[in-house]
Amino acid sequence: MNNKYLMIYNEIVAQIKNGEIAPGTLLPSENELKDQYDTSRETIRKALNLLAQNGYIQKVRGKGSIVIDISKFDFPISGLVSFKELAEKMGGKSKTIVNELSLIIKPDSYLRHQLQLNSKDQVWKVVRTREIGGNKIILDKDFLAAKFVPQLTEEICENSIYEYLENELNLKISFAKKEIIVEEPTAEDRSLLDLEGFHNIVVIKNYVYLEDASLFQYTESRHRPDKFRFVDFARRNH
Known about the structure:
The structure is a single chain. The protein is an alpha+beta fold. It is built from 8 helices and 10 strands. The protein has helices at 4-17, 30-37, 41-53, 83-90, 109-115, 154-159, 161-167, 187-192, and strands at residues 57-60, 64-67, 73-76, 94-104, 123-132, 135-145, 173-183, 201-210, 215-223, 228-231.
């Protein structure tokens, strides 16, 4: 039966949605599923591939197919929100770990280019791990021009940099240009995030501007792919 893989797919999806198969469960092997559904291994592979494509399972090398949490967090592509605002909206238990806070006296050519700075400008570097529900799933690497942000503390970075900029420094954060790419995790990603079994990471590069169009922040926000659904709203212009 040509559509048997769809029947198997739909049956497993229903079991995931009704909680019969919980997130984190390892599905039976291809051979076990083949025997269970009395079908070919090729049919099972087609069903598993469709489950992976639609975000129900994660194929992990050496382990098999793990059911992932389908209640992903909506991450607004077109919006400008802080992690604190996002975490409050999600309602889950969250934590920010400051891995590094330093003032770069002489930024390299890459940073100067990203932030459109001259050789005398200084840059704050902030590296933070974001933890939600006990899982370290976001690594934020922020670079802020010190001429706009003269002072930063670890306490500010643990709480909310944007809250500090807007409420204490009275800066008006206006808009951002974003670039989204998928990369293999770096050694830093693997050391600071919970990435066992994951071979890709979603990177959002942000160039953030003030109300007067001054570029003050460049950010690389590195996300574990199973926990986020990147959403946007689009309207066709006539």
